[in-house]
Design a protein that fits this description.
Layout: H1 2-34, H2 46-65, H3 71-74, H4 79-92, H5 99-125, H6 136-143, H7 146-167, H8 174-203, H9 212-236, H10 241-263, H11 272-293, H12 314-319
Helix pairs in contact: 1-2, 1-4, 4-5, 4-11, 5-11, 7-8, 8-9, 8-10, 10-11
């Protein structure tokens, strides 16, 4: 069991590191093309394709890790991706900073990386050792167990309530959206572990693909992953990515560990000290991810104009049928009121008196000029 846990942890760490490098490579490709006169599209560059291949390799490593180690160990190791992204951003993105800003912007990030590493070490050291073969019989037995059925009932009711408030009551709080993501993600990781475990057993010679439960888990895995990505996309349109990363990691990890411990009985027979140290590792990793992401730069929205609806009295004017700029019918009446000729004399444009200057012989000769007086008739 210890060897399998170690293999699973190494695969997960390797996968998250490669995914982080791949995403930063693709980001570098987009930035370089945006800042140059290169007319090529991003998908025509070797750097972007290298990032895509590394991304697929990393996701494959994370997927395979679920077949060897308990779900409660693999899920929190996604903090490795946050750590790697922070280190890559600090080292390879050449940002100009003042000495007084270093403490505020970077020291807390380094402290967060250290805490996340300590938390990851505790997670690997005190992870549960109960890991069984992912055969079709075992998965079907866990699927109909009363603890998991009770968890599914609570999760479905909670998901429906959150979805109602989100869709009907416009409850766009980040906690509401990311709780929807976490509930879907808990089912995703449960099904991923089942599918990965059955595939590995099939490759080893113990065929599991003839069990209907395999295809049920596969369909659930794909469906929950798609809807999870949909809610994440909606959250990214409202909130900053760093806030989504920290809050999403905390909520998703907590709910996924709960689902894994109920479905796969990860902590069954574990000592209380091991469980407490594992929980401490999770808390330290949560704090580290929070410190890493809280100092990211946030985009400041630019408002090029002030909406007239926000000005006092404008909504009342529109409600009474009054318009800010009436339709104009007279010729040469741009910016004037309608029917300009019928307005009383007190509202006609005032004409300034023209002072005639006498040019003496001492003045510098130049081109004579006239000042034209505009009358109302013109």
């Amino acid at each position: 069991m210890v060897t399998e846990n170690l293999i699973g942890a190494l695969l997960a760490i390797f996968g998250h590191l490669v995914v982080s490098i791949a995403l930063n490579l693709q980001k570098y490709c987009h930035i370089r093309l945006a800042g140059s006169k290169d007319p090529r599209a991003y998908f025509k560059t070797k750097t972007w394709w290298l990032g895509l291949l590394l991304l697929l390799l990393g996701e494959l490593g994370v997927f395979a890790s679920y077949a060897f180690a308990p779900l409660s160990l693999i899920v929190p190791l996604s903090a490795v991706s946050v750590i790697a992204s922070a280190i890559i951003g600090i080292i390879f993105i050449k940002e100009k900073w003042k000495p007084k800003d270093f403490v505020r912007r970077y020291v807390l990030s380094f402290v967060g990386c250290g805490l996340a590493i300590v938390g990851t070490y505790l997670l690997v050291t005190f992870a549960p050792n109960s890991h069984e073969k992912m055969t079709g019989e075992n998965i079907a037995r866990h699927l109909v167990s009363w603890p998991f059925l009770l968890y599914m009932l609570v999760a479905i009711v909670l998901f429906c309530l959150l979805l109602y408030f989100y869709k009907e009551k416009n409850a766009n709080s980040i906690v509401v959206i990311l709780l929807l993501v976490a509930l879907l993600g808990s089912m995703t990781v449960v099904t991923v572990k089942a599918v990965a475990g059955m595939l590995v057993l099939s490759i080893q010679g113990n065929l599991q693909l003839d069990y209907p439960i395999f295809y049920v888990m596969f369909v659930c895995m794909v469906a929950t992953a798609i809807y999870q990505a949909t809610f994440l996309s909606q959250a990214s349109q409202i909130y900053d990515s760093s806030l989504i990363a920290s809050v999403g990691y905390i909520l998703s990890t907590t709910v996924a560990i709960t689902a894994g411990s109920i479905f796969y009985l990860d902590f069954l027979g574990e000592e209380a000290l091991h469980i407490c140290m594992f929980a401490l590792g999770c808390l330290i990793a949560f704090l580290g991810v929070f410190l890493i992401t809280r100092n990211r730069k946030k985009a400041i929205p630019f408002e090029p104009y002030i909406s007239m609806d926000a000005m006092p009295g404008m909504q009342d004017m529109h409600a009474k049928g009054m318009t800010v700029q009436p339709d104009l019918k007279a010729s040469f009446s741009y910016g004037a009121l309608e029917n300009n000729d019928s307005i009383s004399e007190i509202y006609t444009p005032a004409t300034l008196p023209v002072m005639q200057e006498e040019h003496s012989s001492r003045s510098t000769p130049g081109v004579p000029y006239r000042v034209l007086e505009h009358t109302k008739k013109e």
